[in-house]
């Protein structure tokens, strides 16, 4: 009887602990990459000779997942990619942008979308706010592309909690657009500030700051 009671007690403790283990997926650009974690051919930035982040354990997403006791489901982050279909040099990058990778996140409980940096740096067209019936031409512009992306994610992963992360030091039209579109879809936008960077990308200190700001913003 005592043995049976011990087994039941262990099971009672283990089940709630297991139930709290959430799966996290990341849809991002170079800020969220790491060699060997992202799909082949995705052009990871990390590790890089011009940045002191050398280990997965130093990335913002691994720091956050470990701090919360979660697990990584998928990290679909591709260096240099934009949310919209317009990339550097005004090239059509619809085959690699964030929208094209919506189906690659597995079965997550939490999704972080960390994008907009390359849209800002590439000078992608902003466009007008549009919340339905998007065409490819619409999604060459940032505002309708972001709306299309969030709409697709909410429909594809209806049970997942969705968060959008906004990099610091981006041009204001990108910032304003992120605030407005995220508000429309009731997606929490986490606006980063004071992120230390090396070669334009978060350093060890910057990665820790991103993690700390996420922990503070998500209660």
Attribute tags:
single chain; 219 residues; alpha/beta; 6 helices; 7 strands; globular
Topology:
Layout: H1 2-19, E1 23-28, H2 60-68, E2 71-77, E3 110-114, H3 117-121, H4 142-156, E4 161-166, H5 172-184, E5 188-191, E6 197-198, E7 201-202, H6 204-217
Parallel strand pairs: 1-2, 1-3, 3-4, 4-5
Antiparallel strand pairs: 6-7
Describe the structure.
The chain has 219 residues and is an alpha/beta fold. Helices cover 34% and strands 15% of the residues. The strands form 2 sheets. Strands 2-1-3-4-5 form a 5-stranded parallel sheet, sandwiched between helices. Helix 5 (172-184) links the parallel strand 4 and strand 5 (188-191). The longest helix has 18 residues, at 2-19. The radius of gyration is 19 Å and the shape is globular.
